[in-house]
Amino acid sequence: MAIGDFGPFKILLRTPFSRWPSSPPVFKSHHEAATWQRKPPELDTGLDIWRGPKVLSIEWDSRVAGSERIISFRRGAWEGEFLAIPEQPVAPQSASISR
Fold first, then answer.
1. What phi and psi, each to the nearest 5 degrees, are found at residue 10?
2. Are 50 and 9 spatial neighbours (Cβ–Cβ below 8 Å)?
3. Which of 80, 56, 83 is CA-nearest to residue 68?
4. Which residues pair with 48 in a beta bridge?
5. 20 Cβ contact list (under 8 Å, min separation 6)
6. Domain boundaries in the chain?
7. Which residues of 15-83 form beta strands (DSSP E)?
8. What SS3 class is residue 73?
9. CA count, 13 A, side-chain hemisphere, 35
10. Looking at residues 55-78, what average pLDDT do you find?
11. DSSP β-ladder status, 45-50 and 69-73
12. Are 55 and 70 spatial neighbours (Cβ–Cβ below 8 Å)?
């Protein structure tokens, strides 16, 4: 899982290699548990974007073309702001060893 801040945006990317909590969910009611059981399974890769509140959540199966699914999307000025972020190459992280 990778989390980053880009100006006013917070972005979370989860991948098939992310570790998930192993504890089972706790439900407050039978209705909540039944709703959870009927939801489609989470796909192995996801992207969430916040600009204050969450504005976009998508997920897909990295092994299946066309499996993209929009979980939530909130229209707003954030769309133009996000597209205006200049592309920056990701610098490789180097490890340093203190002696």
1. -115, 130
2. yes
3. 56
4. 12, 57
5. none
6. 1-19+40-76
7. 45-50, 54-60, 69-73
8. strand
9. 7
10. 92
11. unpaired
12. no
Can you tell me the distance from the alpha carbon of 61 to that of 44, in angstroms, rounded to the nearest whole number? 5
23-56 b/e (C-beta count within 10 Å ≥ 16 → b):
eeeeeeeeeeeeeeeeeeeebbbbebbbbeeebb
Contact present, 16 and 59 (Cβ < 8 Å): no
CA atoms 75, 81, 84, 90: torsion sign: negative
10-19, 64-73, 75-84: least confidently modelled range: 10-19
Q: Is the pLDDT of residue 71 over 80?
A: yes
Q: Partners of 6 in the beta sheet?
A: 9
Round to whole Å and give the CA distance between 22 and 47: 21
- The model's pTM is 0.66
Residue type, 90: V
